[in-house]
Amino acid sequence: MSVEVLDGATIRDFVEDVQAFNGLVDGRFVTLDVDHDGLLSYSEMMKELMSLRVLETHFGFDVVETSPDEIALIYHSLFLQFDHDRSGYVDKEEFRAETKKMMLAMANGLGVLARSDGLGGRQSP
Ligand SMILES: [Ca+2]
């Protein structure tokens, strides 16, 4: 999926399409679950968390001056957001729920961004 071509409304439509959304998220889950135990550990989630950071840089968050320690903290807090029951692992339900929440937040954020500064586009790295 290329997120770059999606706008807020497109993301919301996609997230509301439960079958398509769960299909995509479950596929992503299986890809991340390298040891196939049905759970995502912190190290397995790192790949996903790093892609979220990539999204943030696209949407205007400045990570250039963020230290490695701070980035580790950000990853850890992101992981805890997914790990609802604090088991140390993210199961498929948690992954679905949090991915949905993040995509909706992203959709809403794009809407706000487009209204507040009139740009709406992403910045080049
Ligand atoms: Ca696993």
UniProtKB/TrEMBL annotation:
The EF-hand domain, residue ranges: 70-105
Keyword Cytoplasm recorded: no
Keywords, ordered alphabetically: Calcium
One family name in Pfam for this protein: EF-hand_7
Sections of the chain in a coiled coil: none
InterPro entries the UniProt entry points to: EF-hand-dom_pair (IPR011992), EF_Hand_1_Ca_BS (IPR018247), EF_hand_dom (IPR002048)
Gene Ontology MF annotations: calcium ion binding
Protein name as catalogued: EF-hand domain-containing protein
Native organism: Cinnamomum micranthum f. kanehirae
